[in-house]
Design goal:
Number of helices: 8
Domain TRAM: 4-63
Family: Belongs to the class I-like SAM-binding methyltransferase superfamily. RNA M5U methyltransferase family. RlmD subfamily.
GO molecular function, one term: methyltransferase activity
Helix content: 10-25%
Largest sheet: 8 strands, mixed
Strand order of the largest sheet: 7-21-22-20-19-16-17-18
Protein name: 23S rRNA (uracil(1939)-C(5))-methyltransferase RlmD
InterPro entries: 23S_rRNA_MeTrfase_RlmD, MeTrfase_TrmA_AS, MeTrfase_TrmA_CS, NA-bd_OB-fold, SAM-dependent_MTases_sf, TRAM_dom, U5_MeTrfase_fam
Number of strands: 22
Strand content: 25-35%
Length: 445
Amino acid sequence: MSRSNTVSPTPFEAHITDLGHDGRGVARIDGKTVFVSGALLGEQVMARLRKRHRHFDEAEVVEVITPSPHRVEPRCRHFAHCSGCSLQHLDAESQIAAKQRVLAENFERIGKVTPQLWLPPLSGAPWGYRRKGRLSVRNVAKKGRVLVGFREEQNPRFVAEIQQCEVMHPALGPKVGLLADLLSAMDAVDTIPQIEFAAGDDLMALVFRHMQPLSERDQAALVAFGQQHGLAIYLQPGGNSSVHPLWPENPRLAFRIASGDAAIEDVELEFQPLDFVQVNADMNQRMMARTLELLDPQPTDRVLDLFCGLGNFTLPIARRVADVVGVEGEHGLVERAAQNAARNGIANASFHVANLFEDQRGADWARQPWDKLLLDPPRAGADKVLEYLPHKQTRRIVYVSCHPASLARDAGILVNQHGFRLASAGVMDMFPHTAHVESIALFER
């Protein structure tokens, strides 16, 4: 393969020696790492170079010469064009194994720690699981139609044209093409850049971002679409605070979390369509059960739940302990968490607004003694919190992570600076058919 900066269209043969963190195959060509879209570990492929970089190159599969025994036929006809999934061509068991391997490598390389016990992976329904997301919209004059979908795999600047989505909640997945038809006939076809979707247990909501006021005709079209397909329609003329329902007048989005114990009541959480909720409802339930198992809440425990959001973990924990406090940086989420506590008749849970990426050691909740700690941070992790927490009284921490590198870093801090041991850890397949690694870890001392 030529070493010039010019991208050659000539295919080259490559042996795939690894699977990257984003699901692409990894090869070495003339001593340089090449990430190959569509290739799997152990395969011999013909690939075509797409883009050169200083330290690595990017390529795509042209032909699979020797397929992996774990290769399967993708279920979605838009796979390889749409960036929504990257691993539909790999069987489910191997997807889980790849994610577990990524987690283990991060623990070893970044945190310099190893779990005393690997938890069995958690997995659920692999199709129709996605209850929240954002669809891009673009009116392409050259094609004479509106495109609605996720970004293209090969070129993220463009919108992938899809008619249906196999991983999306069934209330919307088969209807993506109908959204494109709807928008094509609207006056505001050039001023709607995105549609966000969010599903509760009983209702799917669509939020239409529009850059200009909508005509009465367009609003009527949206209402008719919602009525026909049983979807709640929201409008977003500005920032997140501008979101409001168009139809019906007072839609209600909510989901239940089963307690798994006949003696303990379930919890129901109401939310707004742009609020953070776990994308996979089935896996959220399974994750909750594992979290409670690892946290081992006792009637006398005082628990601190950081990055608590709507109270997804806080309220089920509250049913089992003496006292629980949830802390979250977004005011609206904290407000709704408190409302959810009241709605469920939970009086031993309280909530605070605080930026957990800033020093909060002076806050009253940060100075109190806590028996147990739950962490569920965003991708950046919880290293700023770990500068002043946990206190010596804390004997158990459950850490739910959406990014293995930040979990590994924070695991090293908890083990090497705070005297905990990494008792157990494992992956949770929150996003089947993607390379996203969700995981959970238990720390004890």
